[in-house]
Write the structure tokens for this entry.
Amino acid sequence: MSKRITIKDVAEDTGLSIAAVSYVLNDKEGVRPETRELVLSAVERLGYVPNYTARGLASHKSRLIGVCSPQTEPGSKLMFDNPFYSKLFSSIEYECRQEGYHVIVSGTDADESFLKLAQQRSLDGMIIVGSYSKEFYSDLKKANMPVVLVDTYQNPERFHEVKVDDRRGGHMATKYLIDRGHRDIAFISGALREQGVTQLRFDGYRQALEESGIAYQKRLVFPGVVSFESGLDCAAKALDQSSEITAMFCTADIIAMGAMKQVLQRGLKIPQDISIMGFDNLNLAEYTSPSITTVAQDIEMKGKLAVEIILEDIDNRISEPRCIELPLKIIERESIRRL
Amino acid sequence: MSKRITIKDVAEDTGLSIAAVSYVLNDKEGVRPETRELVLSAVERLGYVPNYTARGLASHKSRLIGVCSPQTEPGSKLMFDNPFYSKLFSSIEYECRQEGYHVIVSGTDADESFLKLAQQRSLDGMIIVGSYSKEFYSDLKKANMPVVLVDTYQNPERFHEVKVDDRRGGHMATKYLIDRGHRDIAFISGALREQGVTQLRFDGYRQALEESGIAYQKRLVFPGVVSFESGLDCAAKALDQSSEITAMFCTADIIAMGAMKQVLQRGLKIPQDISIMGFDNLNLAEYTSPSITTVAQDIEMKGKLAVEIILEDIDNRISEPRCIELPLKIIERESIRRL
């Protein structure tokens, strides 16, 4: 390796002590403006790049944020099989980069391994996507580090949260279909887990039916996993079982894509024969033919806010746990018709 | 934070010196089996997790791999707008995780910032996706660290490479269409850059036309960027300009999705009116209706091999630069018909 410029070189060049240079570089108070300028101009001229590995030990700051995104869906070993996660992660990476932080992302298979990662890497903070066990959250608390939870309804330790109102989203989607004359609405979803996002969308679905005087029918509910293949399978079951279905509320756009494929493969038309409602507003929802009407959440904003909160907490600028709920809205496209 | 177990605790517990414990943990030779067992059982019992930040300084190993994936497409600030990158990255992350490495990914905007990242984080190795300037490669060489290039044809410094034969891919795709009776084949692509992947696919396209005695027509070539929107626009131009086009060879599935949307929006049918050939075999190619016939590259394998090579190099098990070329094949789906 070509000789690396170290803090020692900066000290020699400026005639200051290493401690004094370090003081400036760590942005401590009480540094005289002339000294600061002297150091910063030497840093630029010499091309000095601080080594975070060394610096992390001294300052206890690694400028690394960990993102934990679980493989919740059985059988999917890769993190980004659902484009929702790739979009969220892209946004987190972008925001961190703008602020001089880097991101370590781990698609942990087990709760434990992520906490291990946090210790191994001296992370400054963690963004945790999805729902985990109670024990995981209490272990997380013990790690005593800024944490932002994204998309969870289990928060016994009162961490910061960024989420949407999933019950309301389920209600909006169902009401939108009911308002257009649909009564036999299949519910096609990921796994229904207590306090999970899907369960709340389901609660919203039931509530909207009830308010409109439509009897809830358990046989119209098809839980699977959040994937294209599961959407394909669940829609097949729905179509085989109930010929009266006129609409499908799919709790994720990736599921909606599978359901659409199933419907079209059978020679049925969308929306003439079957209307399809999605959730998320992935780019994909616009790419398909017909494009998918969906409950839009601002995934990019979700990532951006998670980063903003974690950086504020790292800088000790937050005293109370924050809970931010992002708005939802329906984006009307081509996959739903009025009966 | 609850008291963290350190190497000192392991030393006290075993009655060994810190140096001796470190010796075992760093897997050095010449350790007696009894000593090794003593240390490892204490590590497990006490729940000691090595801190890579501290360890990195001592061993000069960070167990961190950097992945550089550029925003080559103007206007796209997020890394994973093209699912090709999210799939490749997912695979790299998965393989690294299995081997006890973590991944820092950076969607650098400038060449320089990634080299800075490598120094700041004391990366053990770098996986570089895409093509860069000559200066970037020579700077990379100076960093004197294991590097694997993915999908580039510029390799003046003889780094390891993993790629596909893009010229052959372009040839295969075009020949497949010609064999099915197509002669007026639009070429819809990303930017044509010298030594870039797209340029080579274009060369293959021209060669296949020539071999079949079909005159190359510049007006059937529509370079844009690698995105859905660009596919939509370029296909519009193609359809507006040449009514004789019967097929479109799109050099990426994400472009093919845009082209499909344009064709279907105009009331034309795929493949009855226009045949579409994609490239990459993203999951998406299967999700659309009709599904997309495409030149398949094994993106997961590309990531896996890049990781295998970099880890071998880190462990000094490679002496010569490796160049691996993965096979391509056409996956037949529903978007192409025989004339």
